[in-house]
Amino acid sequence: MMGKNMKGLTISDVVRQSGATEKQIRDWNLKGYLGPVIKEQYMGMVVYIYSPENLYRAKRIVELKIDGISPKYASLILDEESESN
Question: Is 11-84 in CATH node 3.60.15.10?
Answer without folding.
Answer: no
